[in-house]
Design a protein that fits this description.
six-stranded mixed beta sheet, 7 helices, alpha+beta, five-stranded mixed beta sheet, 350 residues
């Protein structure tokens, strides 16, 4: 049985730490790799990224595997959350060995942030090492294959998607080869996720699962969005983050290719994308449990295509699972409030 989420990749766990109210609207999400780590890579397309330890993931460099990836709010300040994750991993003896003593390790913890400063009302309310530790502990305490909470949780707590409330979303697929490919996203885009002419989510147009809103509903939604925009300061910085994971046995170079093509999934669901004030970043993780067919040099193609597809679906899930926010930091209606929830499979599991 699958959950249609990132934890369908065996051994991968997800933990969230969130804080809202009293000036707060932010959080951190940690993707914890199986014991022994996972091959990792990254591809950054946005013009204003906030990242940590991404150079270590270059296929030319020495680090082969990582134990965790951190996605966090708080802009560059929030990258401090990775310190808490790093400390927890050291206590578990997980990291790059740097001496004869097994306890002497240096955990490599790649991280990326989204801009949500001040969205709860207090500019200084942002994730720190303690929040990062709480998120990784939540991941470690979760059951194998546990369903990932979506919407306004973790790094998606203060996320917005254009004029709408954003959040965390996840999706997965199993290929004919038996290989699983999954994604988790933080939808915090400067671009729009919904067609302003119809209200349809761009990601659902790509999926071919379109239920056009009634014209009167759409007109009312546009009016509500205009009212909200009049109360909010224009967002100076935004970012969509993603972790794409697979149980395939990939090299670092193959994982980097997966991270790169997965950006296509963002481009299908967000318009425009990869702007100068975006920090769009995709990490790829490969646990190596299932070999690729060595007799077919293009066997990676199916994984690449699936990576982009699950990112698109995860963005749709993030926007549909989000809940409206109205407070001292601003007003962001949810898509569900404006347009209602679709029936059955179109909505998917939260």
């Amino acid at each position: 049985m699958t959950t249609d989420g990132l934890t369908d990749v065996a051994g991968v766990r997800v933990g969230h730490a969130s804080r809202s109210g009293h000036g707060w609207l932010t959080g951190t999400t940690v993707v914890l790799a199986p014991e022994g780590g996972a091959v990792a890579a990254v591809d950054v397309r946005g013009g204003g990224p906030g990242t940590k330890e991404t150079d270590a993931l270059d296929p030319r460099n020495v680090v082969q595997k990582v134990d965790a990836v951190v996605l966090t709010g708080g802009s560059a300040y929030g990258l401090d959350a990775a310190s808490g994750v790093m400390a927890w991993l050291e206590e578990q003896g997980r990291g790059v060995p740097v001496g004869t003593d097994p306890a002497h390790v240096v955990p490599v913890v790649p991280a990326a942030c989204v801009f949500d400063l001040g969205r709860g009302g207090d500019f200084r309310a942002r994730p720190d090492a303690a929040m990062g530790r709480a998120a990784v502990e939540a991941a470690a305490a979760s059951a194998p294959g546990e369903r990932v909470p979506q919407g306004c949780v973790g790094a998606g707590t203060g996320a917005v998607a254009g004029p709408l409330k954003g959040g965390v979303g996840t999706a997965s697929t199993v290929l004919g080869s038996g290989i699983t490919v999954a994604a988790l996203v933080v939808a915090n885009a400067a671009g729009a996720v919904a067609d302003p002419g119809t209200g349809v989510l761009y990601g659902e147009l790509f999926q071919g699962r379109v239920r056009y809103p009634d014209e009167r509903v759409h007109e009312a939604a546009l009016g509500r969005l205009a009212e909200a925009a009049a109360k909010n300061a224009p967002p100076p910085l935004n970012t969509t983050l993603a972790v794409v994971a697979t149980d395939a046995d990939l090299t670092k170079a193959q994982a980097q290719k997966l991270a790169g093509t997965a950006h296509d999934g963002i481009a299908r669901a967000v318009r425009p994308v990869h702007l100068l004030h975006d920090g769009d970043t995709v990490f790829a993780l490969a646990t190596g449990a299932r070999p690729l067919d060595s007799g077919h040099p293009l066997a990676l193609n199916d994984i690449l295509a699936a990576g982009a597809d699950v990112v698109t679906r995860a963005i749709v899930r993030a926007v549909r699972a989000a809940e409206s926010v109205e407070g001292p930091g601003g007003v962001w209606p949810s898509y569900a409030e404006l347009y209602g929830e679709p029936p059955g499979e179109l909505h998917g599991e939260r």
